[in-house]
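The authors assume throughout that readers already know how a fold can be written as discrete tokens. The format is easy to grasp once an entry is in front of the reader. For illustration, here is how one protein appears when written out as sequence plus structure tokens:
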Amino acid sequence: LLKTNNDNYNSITKIFDVQEKITYKITTKSGKEIICSEEHLFPTNGNQKEKSILTGLKVGDKLWIDDNAI
């Protein structure tokens, strides 16, 4: 987990031991690339608030992406 302090730096607050998983690379129309697992939830602008590859995320879906994200 990352925590932002008043100096706009991020501090690591906890490290998780993660199992090895198959990853997917999603490339958006604008050229942004996202590496994720099939369980990763993405905010969408459709009827569902969030989707993952397991719950039906597919080519052509629209994702909400924060341009100011780290």
